[in-house]
Amino acid sequence: MTSTTTRQNALREAIAAERRELADVLAGLPKQAWDAPSLCAGWRVREVVAHMTMPFRYSAARFGLEMAKSGGNFTAMSDRVAKRDAAAMSATELTAALRDNAEHPWQPPGGAAEAPLTHDVIHGLDFTVPLGLGRKVPEDRLRLVLDTVTSPQALKHFDVDLTGIRLVADDLDWSFGTGEPMSGPAENLLLAIAGRRLPQGALHGAPSPRFLAATG
Q1: What was the pLDDT predicted at 98?
Q2: Could you give the CA distance from residue 53 to residue 58 in angstroms, rounded to a whole number?
């Protein structure tokens, strides 16, 4: 077995494990938690899960139709569909959609092989963090996602400028960039890169105001 095949298999296993573990978390949530706000502006937990499972539930043709309805605007389409599906599906159905598709091979067009894991990890944090569940993304997955989101393509996608900033995780051996250090838990660094608003004190250092627009 080649090293490439071994890496691909390990990545598929990590994706499946992340989805199953998040499904276990969702299965244990009290009913009211599904209507709690997430880190995605305007979305509750149920909208986040509806969005996470959309790639499994929609064919390419249906996805294209929904995009056409939103004038080709992905952000508008995903918001509309997430809210519609969250209202139509029960918590049990949403959880099952995630668990039953743990090994689904979905990958965004033009995205890196790590994109599905990145998608699942970030959106998992979108609801586990504000709910205070204390769930920690396994270090190997978190490290892989951090390396993915700091690629030039990903930084352009997130519209984050890390010029002159050195990111330093204080809970695992990971850093990126050069310049003024900004440190904090690896999960907080990931969420800030992804544009999530974090409370004051979640990160430490003196980075550019543009990057810290996601915090405070």
Answers
A1: 98
A2: 9
